[in-house]
Each structure stands twice: as structure tokens, then as C-alpha cells.
Specification:
- The chain has one domain.
- It contains seven helices and four strands; from the N terminus they run ααββββααααα.
- The strands form two sheets. The protein has a two-stranded antiparallel ribbon with strand order 1-2. A two-stranded antiparallel sheet has the order 3-4.
- About 35% of the residues are buried.
Length: about 160
């Protein structure tokens, strides 16, 4: 198993356990969590006191710069060239922008519930939706690094669903 896979897996597992993984937000999506962890950043879930049902996410590091390289919206992905940001992303994570674009696409197209609609769903419904995205992300990461024991890593995410 490569060091980059290990770090990405640990970042995603921590996000899964802490409920700081979310669709449609550059700060807390799969790539946002990987980038934050690579910088030693911490993502927190923030409840808006003015609008009780509104949830957002913030990070104590600049972990959303990657959205200037690629973005997935409504199942379509746009990729932009920026050699400086591409190098920064690679140096942080060990993944190229193209590889992380595949990760983002897997997460965003395999989840249905946007973070700004979480208040309409139970935590169990959100977890089940995110689980689908996580499994798609893990498939991409496993394929990229040819991780032979990939299914063992994927099974670790099941524990949270089993307890719900």
C-alpha cells in the first residue's frame, strides 16, 4: 500500500466518523478532506445560529483551492489547467489533479444529498448516501494504487452503518 493511499484512506475514514464529509462543498467533499488532512487541517461542521437548519463546513487551512483545477456539478466535470496549483496539489497529496478529479467525480456522482439539504434527512439517510460515494471513491483510490487488500479497507466503513 502506498503512503498516499494510506493518508487518503485515513482522511476519509476520519471524515466519515466525524460527519465532516459532504457532497457539493469544496471544503468537506472527498477531495476537500484529503487536501485538508495533507495540510494538517481540521474540518468542522458549523450550524448557523440564524437559520437553525443550515449546516456548513469550515477548515482551518486553505483546503478548497483545488476547485480552481476541477469541479463536478450536475454529473458534469470541468477541468482547468494551472501548473502552479497542480504542483501544489501533487506535493501535498501525492495525487495528480487528474487523479483527484476522478476521486471527486466518483464521490459527487454517487451521492444524491447535497450538504445544504441535510436538514431534510435523517443522519442514517445521509450516512447511507455518503457510503455509496465513499465506496466509489475507495474503488478509484484502490485502482490508482493497485491496492490488493482494498476490500478490507472498504469494509471498515461498514462499522458506522451497522451501529446506526
Amino acid at each position: 500500500m502506498s503512503e498516499r493511499f494510506k493518508k487518503a484512506y485515513e482522511a476519509l475514514y476520519r471524515a466519515w466518523e466525524n460527519n465532516t464529509l459532504a457532497k457539493n462543498t469544496c471544503t468537506a467533499c472527498a477531495v476537500g478532506n484529503i487536501v485538508a488532512a495533507a495540510q494538517g487541517g481540521v474540518i468542522t461542521k458549523v450550524h448557523n445560529e440564524m437559520v437553525e437548519s443550515r449546516i456548513s463546513f469550515k477548515c482551518n487551512t486553505r483546503n478548497d483551492f483545488w476547485d480552481q483545477l476541477f469541479i463536478t456539478s450536475y454529473g458534469e466535470q470541468d477541468i482547468y489547467k494551472n501548473p502552479v496549483l497542480e504542483e501544489e496539489l501533487f506535493n501535498l497529496t501525492g495525487y495528480t489533479a487528474y487523479e483527484l478529479a476522478k476521486v471527486e467525480y466518483a464521490f459527487e456522482t454517487n451521492t444524491k444529498i447535497n450538504f445544504n439539504r441535510y436538514h431534510r434527512f435523517t443522519q442514517k439517510e445521509i450516512d447511507e448516501d455518503q457510503f455509496k460515494g465513499l465506496m466509489a471513491v475507495m474503488d478509484v483510490l484502490i485502482e490508482l494504487d493497485e491496492v490488493k487488500e482494498g476490500n478490507e479497507y472498504k469494509q471498515n466503513f461498514n462499522k458506522k452503518l451497522e451501529l446506526a
